């Protein structure tokens, strides 16, 4: 994915770059809303919230729900602002400043891009309006369970400005995300892997979502 995006960028000539994965959708006002925001010359890149869509077409909730705001690279590390790759647009000069996407990462490449872009450009803009539908494909890269130390080490290598607390924040988000797509019986193992304390306020919610997913799949098989 990173290699394909970088090659597409090299072939493009526009002042603004919009990303769209083949299985996602833009809502009607997507390009208009982003270009309106780019009227402010201080906006280097933009992310809008994305609506999660299950394989059966039903909707779950929003990734990256929150108000319109400029966010620092430290805030992009926080998983609450992770939307999806199809929610991203950028000025050409902001993309060129960081050399585009990191081709060595097979996961979390969108997040690593946002962190580096915000650090190099001072911030990035988060929109309040949901303008993207993010399809959760079971076979997609984003559903892989292999988001662990190799990916985290790759991000720490390409983002040397990250501090230990940021590394742990990334590890926590990855563990919670892995737990959500793993069977409930693996939940505690994922929490231990991510060094997430069980009294963390989101652990119970994550476990209930994991259980809901398992029950939905079980009924679907019947």
Care to describe what's here?
- The structure is a single chain.
- By secondary structure, this protein is α+β, with helices and mostly antiparallel strands.
- It has nine helices and nine strands.
- A five-stranded mixed sheet has the order 1-7-3-8-6. A four-stranded mixed sheet has the order 2-9-4-5, with no helix packed on it.
- Strand 4 and strand 5 form a beta hairpin.
- The longest helix is centred in the last third of the chain and has 19 residues.
- 32% of the residues are buried.
Quick rundown:
This protein has nine helices and nine strands.
Strand content: 5-15%
Query: Strand sequence of the main sheet, in spatial order?
Result: 1-7-3-8-6
Structural class: alpha+beta
What is the tally of helical segments? 9
Outline type = globular
């Amino acid at each position: 994915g990173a290699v394909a995006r970088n090659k597409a960028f090299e072939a493009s000539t526009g002042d603004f770059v919009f990303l769209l994965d083949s299985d996602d959708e833009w809502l009607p006002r997507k390009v208009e809303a982003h270009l309106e925001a780019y009227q402010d010359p201080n906006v280097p890149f933009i992310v809008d919230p994305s609506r999660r869509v299950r394989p059966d077409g039903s909707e779950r909730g929003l990734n990256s729900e929150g108000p319109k705001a400029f966010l620092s690279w430290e805030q992009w590390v926080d998983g609450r602002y992770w939307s999806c790759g199809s929610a991203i647009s950028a000025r050409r000069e902001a993309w060129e400043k960081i050399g585009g996407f990191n081709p060595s990462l097979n996961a979390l490449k969108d997040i690593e891009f946002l962190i580096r872009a915000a650090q190099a450009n001072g911030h990035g803009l988060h929109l309040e309006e949901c303008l993207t539908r993010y399809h959760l494909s079971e076979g997609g890269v984003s559903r892989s369970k292999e988001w662990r130390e190799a990916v985290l080490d790759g991000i720490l290598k390409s983002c040397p400005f990250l501090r230990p607390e940021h590394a742990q924040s990334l590890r926590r988000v990855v563990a919670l995300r892995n737990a959500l797509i793993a069977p409930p019986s693996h939940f505690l193992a994922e929490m231990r892997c991510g060094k997430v304390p069980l009294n963390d306020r989101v652990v119970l919610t994550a476990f209930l979502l994991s259980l809901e997913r398992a029950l939905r799949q079980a009924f679907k098989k019947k």
